[in-house]
Design goal:
It contains 3 helices and 4 strands; from the N terminus they run βαβββαα. With 94 residues, the chain is α/β, with parallel strands linked by helices. The chain is globular and about 30 Å long.
């Protein structure tokens, strides 16, 4: 499986994306996935349109992207986290 680029974005690219970034890194290790994880601001997503495979974000976005977008607010609330993790894994294993 080739290395996939995962964008982890929040409004500022610092606080909430760090929580999600750490969770994805842990999932990658547990599942033997080799990922290129980029922690960014939501405004920077357009810079990765040609290279990213997945966007995982805590920010609201209505824009369409050429890759799947997964809402990761569950990592902040603690509600539905396992479902979100499963969604992320399913996309990464495609």
């Amino acid at each position: 499986m080739s290395k996939k680029q995962v964008l982890v974005a929040c409004g500022a690219g610092i606080a909430t994306s760090t929580v999600v970034n750490n969770a994805i890194e842990e999932m990658a290790k547990e599942n033997g996935l080799d990922l290129d994880i980029r922690q960014i601001k939501i405004a920077e997503v357009n810079s990765y349109l040609d290279t990213a495979h997945l966007l995982v974000t805590t920010a609201m976005t209505k824009k369409e992207f050429p890759f799947p977008v997964i809402n990761a607010r569950s990592f902040l609330t603690g509600i539905g986290t396992e479902d979100t993790k499963q969604q992320i894994l399913e996309e990464l294993k495609k």
